[in-house]
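Subject: Protein record for review, amino acid sequence with backbone structure tokens
How to read it: Take the token row as a discrete description of the fold.
Enclosed: The protein record, placed directly beneath this head.
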Amino acid sequence: MPSSPKLSLSRRAFIFFWKKLCALTMKVFYRSYEVIDEDSLPENTGIILCVNHVNALIDAAVLQASTDKNIRALARDGLFKNPFLKPILRMIGTVPIYRRETEQTDTSKNQDTFARCYELLAENQTLVIFPEGQSHSKSYIQEIKTGAARMALGAIQENGIAPVVIPVGMTFSRQKRARTEVLVHYGKPIDLNLPEGINEYDSVHLITERVQKGIEAVTLNTKSWQDLDLVKRLEQFFSLRTSKTQGEETKNDATIDNSSAVEKINPTVTNQSRKTLSERFQALQQLIELQDLLKQHEPEKIRSLMSKLRVFERLCQACGISNYHLAITYQPLLLTLYTIRTLGIVLIGFPIALWGILNSIIPYFLTQFLTNKVSKKVDQHDTTWVMLGMLFFGIFWGGQCNYVYTHFGFYWSLFYLSSIILGSALALNLKGEYQRTIANLKVFFLFLRKKDLRNYLETKRQELEAELAHMVRIAKRLSKADKLD
């Protein structure tokens, strides 16, 4: 089995820096970052990663941060015309592909691209292709191109060894928002075996269909963003079901067991706070499947149910109450611990965070303002945000540290840089904490003044829970009937 050729010292150093930069970007620009099944990637073989494309250039960085392997992405040739990007793309080993965007594009060069890919796969390297062709902001996977299939089949013919083709899904929890959550999900290898006697055209389209299904299996796909928003609201609603309600439902209906979609979504507040992105992803996938079945077979019932859910959510919103507030039991010990924690944040965390805010407020708002102006499409937001953020924070923090270095010396400048990094990181984390604390205090005193309000909302919530559970049982029966058909 051939091994990858040794890289030059400069390229090894740059790739090391690039991988560390990608990992740091995930920690700084995203609130939460999680990877599923990266350990399943095989060793000592050529790999083709087929990835959905939802966030322009940042997708490559998100993927690189998910694995220790040196990935080599295929990117459109237009990016190599950018004087800033070209040297970076060359150093990390990006392979250009030529799309028929203009009459000047010479697509015949793709023959050289495929030949280069065969060589890299023979050297047991990892290639990345975005089969959808271009980044998009749809709520579902676009019809993919045949490039991945042609590359895999061509590598078999050219090298005599089949590469491992793996679908990868990247899921971002919110669109056009900073500090969102990211899940990278590595799927099962695509079956490259073909029926006997099948021609080349049908072979390519059969593998392409398998790749399409593979990517769909590791991503969330709904007909619209409204549908996905609804499913997320349902997931949050089910996540905070009370143990009492669960017990009653289980006692009254034996069809609800641990294998049902409802029970697979963590029921308690404690579990909700610990729920991983992968657990939420699995729950959302199940709910999307159930929602599609109900829309197809019981459209009136699901419309009625969703209308009741909206009324309940608007009532809670008008009172400033979130779902989890109704699941909290205000016990003396809980209140004491919460008060101590809040005082600690105020007395210790807030002054440090304030220092970070004072030193970062200008580059932060410049980044936010220009990102909203420059990013014309939703899928360009994260790439623009990261690039402008690096630029403005680099300029401002560099200038501030240089001033301290000039007037006070090296060690003071090093201390200053460390202090603003720590303060800024704490400020980002405490931003959400501050908002939650204010909301919690308002709800606590609201429930003290209006004790009947909580009882009323809990009753309405339990009614909705029972109706939602009933709809899940209907969807499960429909799913079983469809499988039998």
